[in-house]
């Protein structure tokens, strides 16, 4: 099974000139989703992770699936205003402006090892912000996993200090 054949390409979304890579068909297909989890499980050693963190929103199902596979917990890194209680915030640049993400202040215990999950690595701004949040609450980033990497955007440079893996590269 080739994931590139399953990932949908949506032209001119979210704005004209952008070719959006949509993992929704992968999530709908149990065999494709199982393949994603199986392939990522090959690069994550159980000793490297205590908790999986999902970046809103397409990172959530990936983090949940991996957390279940490893019998670990899952935490959420969300857009500003979406998490209850005390949170920590990070502002960062995205392709179309700036954004703010948050993590709950009590999401992690000091020193917990975290794998951060998202659907796509583009410029790396979101991934880098997620790492800052994990570290801000006392976590240790073990690495990142993505389904897709857009190599022309050089997002790997933003997270060069961390291990990462992407299953499909465009």
Description of the molecule:
- The protein has one domain: Rossmann fold (3-Layer(aba) Sandwich).
- It contains 5 helices and 9 strands; from the N terminus they run H-E-E-H-H-E-H-E-E-E-E-H-E-E.
- The chain has helices spanning 3-6, 24-28, 30-41, 59-70, 125-136, and strands spanning 8-11, 19-22, 51-55, 73-79, 87-94, 97-104, 113-121, 140-149, 164-169.
- The protein has a 7-stranded mixed β-sheet with strand order 5-6-4-3-7-8-9, sandwiched between helices. A two-stranded antiparallel sheet has the order 1-2.
- The radius of gyration is 15 Å and the shape is globular.
- The mean pLDDT is 97.
Can you tell me the overall shape?
A: globular
Domain unit count = 1
N to C succession of SSEs: HEEHHEHEEEEHEE
CATH architecture term: 3-Layer(aba) Sandwich
GO molecular function: adenine binding; adenine phosphoribosyltransferase activity; AMP binding
EC number: 2.4.2.7
Pathway: Purine metabolism; AMP biosynthesis via salvage pathway; AMP from adenine: step 1/1
Organism: Nitrosotalea sinensis
């Amino acid at each position: 099974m080739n994931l590139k054949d399953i990932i949908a390409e949506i032209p001119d979304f979210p704005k004209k000139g952008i070719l959006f890579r949509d993992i929704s068909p992968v999530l709908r297909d149990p065999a494709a989703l199982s393949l994603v989890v199986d392939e990522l499980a090959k690069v994550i050693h159980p000793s490297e992770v205590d908790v999986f963190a999902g970046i809103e929103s397409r990172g959530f199902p990936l983090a949940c699936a991996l957390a279940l596979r490893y019998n670990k917990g899952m935490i959420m890194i969300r857009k500003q205003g979406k998490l209850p209680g005390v949170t920590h915030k990070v502002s960062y640049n995205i392709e179309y402006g700036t954004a703010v993400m948050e993590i709950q202040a009590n999401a992690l215990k000091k020193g917990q090892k975290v794998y951060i999950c998202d659907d796509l690595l583009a410029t790396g701004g979101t991934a880098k912000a997620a790492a800052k949040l994990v570290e801000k609450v006392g976590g240790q980033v073990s690495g990142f996993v993505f389904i897709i990497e857009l190599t022309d955007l050089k997002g790997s440079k933003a997270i060069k200090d961390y291990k990462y893996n992407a299953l499909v590269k465009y």
